[in-house]
Amino acid sequence: MIGQLRTHSLPLAALLALAAAPFLGFGDGFALSLLARAMILGMAAVSLSLLIGGAGLVSLGHAAMMGVGAYTVVAFDAAGVSEGVIVFPAAIAAAALFALVTGAVSLRTSGVHFIMITLAFGQMAFFTASSFSSLGGDDGYTLYARTEWLGARILDNRLTFHFLCLALLALVWLGCSRLLASRFGRVLRAAKENPQRVLAVGFQPYPYRLVAYTLAGAVSGLAGALLANASEFVSPALLSWTRSGELMFMVILGGVGSLSGAILGALAIVLLEEWLSHLLVYWRLVFGPLLVLSVLFLHGGLIGVIPRTRAALRLLPWTRRNANA
Amino acid sequence: MPDEPLLELNGLCKSFGALAVTSDLSLTVRPGEIHAIIGPNGAGKTTLIHQISGTLRPDRGSIRFVGRDVTALPFERRARLGLARSFQITSVVPGFTALDNVALAVQARSGSSFRFLRPVSAETALNDEARAALDTVGLGRVAGTPAAALSHGEKRQLELAIAIAMNPRLLLLDEPLAGAGPEETDRLIGILRDLRRRYGILLVEHDMQAVFALADRISVLVYGRIIVTGTVDEIRSHPEVRTAYLGEDALA
Fold first, then answer.
1. Cross-chain Cβ contact B104/A190 below 8 Å
2. Which residues form the ABC transporter domain (chain B) (predicted)?
3. How confident is the model at residue A298, as a pLDDT?
4. Do residues B50 and B158 share a domain?
5. Last residue of a domain, one of B130, B147, B167
6. Does residue B248 carry a pLDDT above 60?
7. Is B166 close to A179, i.e. CB distance below 8 A?
8. Domain for residue B90, yes or no?
9. How far apart, in whole angstroms, are the C-alpha atoms of residue A263 and residue A261?
10. Out of A57, A241, B64, B146, which could bridge A51 as a Cys pair, Cβ 3.0 to 4.6 Å?
């Protein structure tokens, strides 16, 4: 238990900080919407981390699943339906179905081919969204109203929305961790490292991967539905492949192989992007090199910073005595 | 029927282009016997193993295993019927502990693996059986070590433990002694000797001393063809085998 707390100390601290943020001067509308965005993208990043780090499936079309969730909200909104009991399950189911169908095809390939085919499916979704003129086409669609819950407009309250996102993010993290530690997860992890061995003991990895892909799609669909509500606006840019790349970068920056790393990665990227864009006009000139440096020098990602620092401290002469004592 | 063979290959043929790597090959493995296959490099031993395990489809011929035709069954389905294969190049899950490597094999035959929430490391039934298999091959003391950190010989033992944990009918061992040092070889031969009678074993091996020490029957494979099958003594004294394959040293 204590070991668990230790390995997850950084993400737990991040979640606590998110819980305290509204009461520490980050309670204005702007800060809350920024944090909500970070947490929502964090959910999608955790589900992508489940695929990349857990199952070895490097998908470059993950934003499309988020987009399917968001556009489901939009489609219902255009039809005059904004009841969450209908809209949210529909968004999750639509994204899961999209993942199931595209996954059924994509998972027949592997390696670079898998990356390319997921990218292709993502682009198909992007152009489909762009061509829906009734849903705004290229210009995007502004929601008439945020989703209601049994007629109550609870998502309109920014603080409620903040804590809803936080709770869901924690739930997604917990759920994905449980999943990876289960029987199902063991087959996935083994198939990532050595598919031949998994076949040899009698498992066909394909159905396990397909279920994981579908579940990750469902989580992203949830994230997409939340994101639509957070910004009350959805445009095809949400499905673009650069967005998928950004999600992948969150996973890598946080640390591949660690689900909670994806949370740190999402927070770091969203906040850094915001901060730099206020500081500089040409902030991307700084942002890009920062990302490159982080990949070069942060082996194991942000999640590995604490254990590495601890290990480095142990090597210093004046701390060594303490460690021995 | 006690005399029914575990594994029966009938007229197996496989060609890559014009090169016939398996030609009209037939052999049987009976329950509780070690049937060794020897032959020079390029004789088609590994191709044969691939066809038996299901990673390669033969062009012609049939494969019967535990009384049913498995010629069209894929690798993992044959594994579930009780065909456990080890690989010429060690194949374990490097990031898993030795115990988890073996527990994965136990899991494969213990109910559905579409279980999503319960931590699998807490399933004592799986771990107990895995530990027993590790003890059988003498790896009990490294159960918690990641497979990647094991020595080469230990990895070979681990592969045997995984095979045993599948509760198989037949072990298909592709050069289990390859790359093992003399001490490790002795230990592995000891383990294989313990395993005989419990499983049928089809053994492909270059180490002649090991083959002569272990095998009940030996088949000699040359250019994809079995030139003779017989007991150790028959093979030692067979003139064609002497000229085709064995040096005088190997018979000493």
1. yes
2. 7-248
3. 81
4. no
5. B167
6. no
7. no
8. no
9. 5
10. A57
Length of chain B: 252
Q: In what order do the strands lie in the sheet with B19-29?
A: B19-29, B7-16, B60-65, B68-69
The total of structural domains in chain B comes to 2
Buried b (16+ CB within 10 A) or exposed e, A8-35: bebbbebbeebeebbeeebeeeebbbbb
Residue B228 lies in a domain: yes
Residues of B within 8 A of A193 (CB-CB) are 93-96
Q: Which amino acid is at B196?
A: R
B142 — pLDDT class (breaks 50, 70, 90): very high
In this structure, what token pair is assigned to residue A240?
A: 């673009």
**Residue A185 identity (one-letter amino acid):** G
B203 neighbors B20 (Cβ within 8 angstroms): no
Tell which wins on pLDDT, B243 or B166.
B166
pLDDT attached to residue A279? 86
CB neighbours of A36 closer than 8 A, spacing ≥ 6? A158, A161, A162, A165, A226, A230
Q: Is A101 left (phi over 0), alpha (psi -120 to 50) or beta?
A: alpha
Radius of gyration of chain B (CA): 18
**Helix (H), strand (E) at residue B61:** strand B60-65
Predicted confidence band at A324 (pLDDT cuts at 50, 70, 90)?
very low
Place of tokens 């000493």: B252
Highest average pLDDT, of A129-138, A184-193, B23-32, comes from A184-193
For residue B69, pLDDT over 70 is answered with yes
Domain of B23?
Answer: 1-82+168-252
